Amino acid sequence: MPEMTKEEYKEFLLQGTKTGKLATVREDGRPHVVPIWYGLDGDNLVFTTGESSIKAKNMKRDPRVSISIDDQTPPYSFVTIEGTISFSKDPEEMLYWATRIGGRYMGEDKAEAFGKRNASEGEVLVTVKPVKIIAFKDVTAW
Question: Helices (DSSP H) in the chain: which residue ranges?
Fold first, then answer.
């Protein structure tokens, strides 16, 4: 199973509308995993979430996260990103990323509406700075 190069995993992360599976840790130590829509800002992964969501509360307490993105078709590939997060409530930055992510997942015709919805009061922009990246392609290839 060959490792992906940096260029390959970035391309993989931006192809189509794969969701990320974000893992955080609850206050009592239990894992919490949820799907997210995301974008890339250079080497960083970005997404929006509700400021009062369980994942946001978990990340406020412990900024370490893990995100897994996988291909659902053979020969299968995946990228796992371990990193630390930072939050932003800058309205312009949130609107930019929420619109961009909304366009990717819902289509450009709905990007502006999703951007406004996901950059509104009570939302926050999350930036994941990678600490470790595991990326493999063609998992089942012979």
Answer: 6-14, 54-61, 91-106, 108-118
**Other residues' Cβ atoms within 10 Å of the Cβ of residue 66:** 20
- Report yes or no on 33 lying in a domain: yes
Cis peptide, bond prior to residue 75, ω within 30 of zero: yes
CA dist., res. 105 & res. 139, Å (int)? 26
Query: Domain for residue 142, yes or no?
Result: no
* Residue 39 clears pLDDT 90, i.e. is over it: yes
| Rounded-to-integer distance, Cα 40 and Cα 66, Å | 15
Query: Domain tally for the chain?
Result: 1
Domain presence at residue 141: no
CB proximity list for 109: less than 8 A, separation 6 or greater: none
Q: pLDDT tens, 64-89?
A: 999 999 998 999 999 999 999 999 99
Residue from 19, 22, 136, 35 nearest 77 by CA = 136
Structure tokens, 117? 């919805």
Compute φ and ψ for 84, nearest 5 degrees.
-120, 150
Cβ count within 10 A of residue 62: 13
Phi/psi for 38 (5° steps) reads: -150, 170
How far apart CA 73 and CA 108 sit, in angstroms, is 25
